[in-house]
Amino acid sequence: MRILLATGLEDLDREIRHSAEERDAETIEIVGECYYREAVVSLAHQREADTIVLSINLPGQADMVDLLRECRMADLRVVFLPGCRDDTKAIDLARKAVALGVYDLVWDPVSPAVVVDRVLNPATLAEAGVDPDEDAVEVPTAGEKGTKRKAGFLGGLFFRRGTFSKTALLMRDMPAITVKSTKQFPSNKVIAVVSPVPAGKTFIAVNLATALSQMGYTVALVDADTRQQSIAAWFAMDSVGLIEALKDDDPLSYAFQHPMLPELYVFSSDLHSDKVVPISVKSLANFLNILHEHVDVIVVDTYRDLNEPVTKTVIDMATSIVLVADLDFSHLIKLQVDIDKIEDTLDFDKFSLLVNRSIKGQNLKVSDAEKAVGLQTDVVLPEKSKDVLESIKTGIPAVLFCTEIKTALNLLIENLIRKGEYCNHNHALESIR
Asked: Is 216 left (phi over 0), alpha (psi -120 to 50) or beta?
């Protein structure tokens, strides 16, 4: 049996793994731990899992009943942890699970040994202990033949790329995000935030840089899109110094610093100037090299045109690339077309896909964004329009007062840290000098 753990509880995952090894290591193989509801099925297929240990505690935006249904439609067996037996909501959820062919229920308080026993000894309907909810839609049980869920209306248009982004975010053996005194990012860490469509790219760059500074890292946020100067607007900056900083060996003296963020240095152009001051490839490369001597991490907000020379330079120099997508149909079309044009020049191992739900779409799904760009989603940013508007009005990054946005970006940072352990492109910095 190949088991994917998706409980959302690090200690429980560890104990289940230990119990499985002691009980029957030859029969049970734990193939990984999933950290987000939206990634359960895709990660199960990637790891060739046949059974999911799934808990109601698993974080994510997806509805749990929909996730159970998706697992069953994918012929995945589910050992389900619905919560407390005396909780009416847990009982209702368990009844829906049973109606979907999920009979293996383990109630709180959860014992790892009981979970392993249930993995080894599948329950019958009678042993489930609750009656199925007749309103739930039944699907074929594991191993039986049946009709698989068909792709959505975009299925024929979008396709998956042969190379996928690493899904380190989804591996549950990573440490929890806390403020750390020991730096985890490798040297010469450059994070490029890119998107060829208006999907909230600058909002992500601003809040990602802010979240990093809140975690104890010294961060430089660079606005490499001098056509828009959007970063200046997000911080309500009263001073800018990017052009001056490009010419000086002491760039931090020209940075804007928000009074609430002493570890964040912001470089942008004048928001109110009609003159676009171009940045040369050479000057930007030299600037980033100098910044490495002063900060732990550099976050670069790029121009939308992925083929533009400065943007291409940033992508080449970056150790991590955050591709921002939303759920707007026309945006996904352009996203796919633009990525296709330069696909052969991109290292997809460096990419992390962030889907921004704050941008209104046409009822599309996260999976549609994945199909458009050919990458698996690392993080879904929740829809928080009021908080975004409040951020614009006050010039205070939303990550400082919106818990949901902070949680999503901390997950993204966790992924970037893990990728940085094996993805080092220092040679790119040297070659561009």
From this structure: left
Question: Where residue 329 falls among pLDDT bands split at 50, 70, 90?
Answer: confident
Is residue 292 a contact partner of residue 298, using CB atoms and an 8 Å limit? yes
CA atoms within 13 A on the CB side of 322: 36
Q: Which of 374, 390, 366, 406 is nearest to 61 (CA)?
A: 366
CATH class, 168-432 region:
alpha beta
Q: How many residues does the chain have?
A: 433
Whole-structure pTM value = 0.58
| Arch. (CATH architecture) of 2-128 | 3-Layer(aba) Sandwich (3.40)
CB atoms within 10 A of CB 363: 8
Q: Which two tokens stand for residue 175?
A: 């440490």
How much of the chain exceeds pLDDT 70, in percent? 79
For CATH 3.40.50.300, list the domain ranges present in the chain: 168-432
- Contact of 272 with 237, CB cutoff 8 Å: no
**d(Cα 413, Cα 402) in Å, to the nearest integer?**
17
Token reading at 230: 């959007």
Q: Which residues make up the CATH 3.40.50.2300 domain(s) of the chain?
A: 2-128
Sole residue written with tokens 């609750």: 130
Amino acid at 339: I
Encode 225-251: b = buried (16+ Cβ within 10 Å), e = exposed.
bbebbbbbebbebeebbbbebbeeeeb
What residues form DSSP beta bridges with 52?
Answer: 4, 78
Higher-pLDDT residue of 86, 228: 86
Residue 260's identity, in one-letter code, is M
